[in-house]
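Task: complex structure prediction.
Instruction: return structure tokens for all chains below.
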Amino acid sequence: MARNGSYMVSHICAVLMAFILLFGDSATAVADIDKSGSIYNKVKFLDWLVNSSPVSIRVKNSNDDEAKQQLKRAREMWEQSVEHSEKSEYKLAEAHINEALKLMTGVSRKFRDQDRVNQARRELYKQVKDHVDMFVVAFDRIAEEKDDDHIRKMLDRNKLASLISSAESKYADDDLVMANHLMRQAADIVDHALSDARHEEILLRELSFDNLQEEYAYEVQRNESYVMIIDLMQKKAATSQASAGYVEKMIEANAKRREEAEVLVKNGDYEQGITLLEKSTDKLSRALRVSGIPF
Amino acid sequence: MSIVRNLIINTLSAAIVFALLLLLVNKESHSADPNQFNRLLAPPSKRNPPPTHDGIHDGPGASMLQTPKSAFDTLPRSKSGNYVDWVKSLEENKIEPRYDKTDPDAKPIVMDLNIVHEVKGSMPNVVYPHKQHTEWLDCSNCHPDIFLPQKGANNISMAAILLGEKCGVCHGKVAFPVSECRRCHSQPKKKSTPKAATK
Amino acid sequence: MKTYDENIVLAIVLLFCMVLVAVDLLTARDAHAEYGDVVINNYSDAADMRPVVFPHWFHRVRFRCKVCHADLGFKFEAGGNDINMLKIIDGEYCGACHDGDIAWSVENCDLCHSGAPGTPTQVHESTLQKLVAPAGGGRAE
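Output:
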């Protein structure tokens, strides 16, 4: 009877173990390890944040008493969270960490790295200014093309000029926030004007080339882009076994046709060269499709 | 002795079962069944997997995140990408994404301009609609970094798009992928269109 | 006889459970994350944190592309933005909204840092990714 009991016990233990493994995602044992792992990371990060991060140094060197108080409080929270996590009191540790993080977020926003922030603002300003310049040129071009006063009036140049000059003067005074705000307004004016000028239009981009040489150059570039992509796939061994042979054949055939086209072109027969290249590119795109790229 | 014997029997049977399973599992990916349909296409039940089962998410965060399927329930569907037609969702006001970080009422600057790109070969010409794009994006997102706003200055090929340049900066990554040809190649060529002109 | 039967029943139950476990373990999940999820692993691995998985779908329901990519300075490139925790706490990049006001704040580490450790920076399910990986994902090798 005792032996039967021990069989049962051993089997039951094995069954229980299997169930725990099965539904182990939410099992407490695993969750605790995860929790402690993530708490550990948070504590480590907080340690750096309150003790040695650039923002903590800036606060220490400042005259802002309130911020210094907040930093001190954040430090205390951190110390407490370390104690709690050592005692495996994860909920308490996390509560303290979150409190400290909230404090540090507030402090950090008051003591931002002004150099980096201003650098980013200057870059943004330059970007928006370039945008305004480029679009004004485009608008002028369109107004010229259409030769329509109604269109020309869509852009209020005086307002635009005044906005740009105010933005520039704010930039010179280092009031970057205002400068960006004004320049953004200028950009909005230009964007609106352009969208009104081109409203409900359809522009046709024909494949028209000035001469056959240009068309040939275009075809070569197009063919090259397909070769590049197949090359990339081959490098990464992404072509499946079945199609690898076919793709290889197509690449070789393409190389040969490119040479033939070159010869034709040297002899002055551009049209044939172009047609040959077009066909070859078509075959390459078929090779791509065979390799499983859906397009 | 009997304990040992039972244990041995258990382990051996488990080993056999595992071996069979491995065979089964391997069979799944290198299927020899010629009649299997759409082996590589994710069936509807496997689309938009929840974070806990998508192979990328991990850890306690994965189970706290919203599952895509629950969010996409009311949105018009599509055949690729997220399997959601985002443009339609916006048009039908099923979603109301902000144009400004803090102002929920800001209106986008929409430009209604279509560019028709003639393409080589027999594929229909591509119609690029600014309207649907400017409802989401700002002009500076594409101009001039990705596309020069100038006729003839942009050399776009399918390969470039697949490589993630030009249209491929977004399409194939966040916007719908280029597996549905007719969404872009939507203007059939007129029969009388001559090939590239020679001057 | 009775003992023998009991043992057999228990053995069968045990085997069944092991079968289920095996199926669960062996079904290595092909990474079929939501389209547009961006895994950002610039500094996470070195800091022993899970990499960040940014879900585009969740954000595009609430904001247009312009807000992040024009106003907040995010570049169109996975890993192309030098984001770190300090900048986020400062209010740059993700921190511009995840400040406790517009959206939840930085103390929710695991909601962002929810990627499988070691996952390289990538736009998941992108065409480019599918180009350089066999179609269909296959078994996690």
